[in-house]
Amino acid sequence: MEWATYLDELIANKLTLFILGWGADYPDPHNFVHPFMHTDGSFAAFQGYSNPEVDRLIAEGIATVDPAKRQEIYYQLQALYYEDVPSIGLYQPLERRYERDWVKGWYYNSVIPNSNTVSYLYSISKG
To answer: What is the b/e burial string over 31-55, where b = at least 16 CB atoms within 10 angstroms of the residue's CB?
Structure first.
């Protein structure tokens, strides 16, 4: 199926099974729970998923500034995700980094974990 047709069918809720990818825009759990779990989230809408308790917890999580309280809320959301199974994650990319001890300036980018492309090497030097 061509991509344009695939998207049209997806948006029209005509696909009984589909696969899509997602990469975080910023390193915060809200960047995942809203699209995948909130009634107004794009992936949740494609899946026909809606849970008022989830929507309430997502609103509470983004409004909470206490890190320990936020963690508790997102753990609750994770448990609901496993319980409701709105979608199935197929894989989580992992990365290993090996470098000489004289390489300086490399840092881990949690938004782009496989950040070993040339465009992200500007901060590295031989120290």
So the answer is: ebbbbbbbeebebbbbbebbbeebb
Nearest alpha-carbon partner for 126 in 107, 102, 108, 97: 102
Distance in angstroms (rounded) separating the CA atoms of residues 102 and 115: 19
CB 9 within 8 A of CB 1: yes
Domains along the sequence of the chain with CATH: 3-84 (3.10.105.10), 94-127 (no CATH)
Check: CB of residue 44 under 8 Å from CB of residue 35. Answer: yes
Residue for token pair 């001890």: 101
Q: Which of 1, 24, 49, 8 is nearest to 110 (CA)?
A: 24
What are the tens digits of pLDDT across the range 16-64? 888 888 777 788 999 999 999 999 998 898 888 999 999 999 999 999 9
C-alpha to C-alpha distance for 127 and 125, rounded to whole angstroms: 6
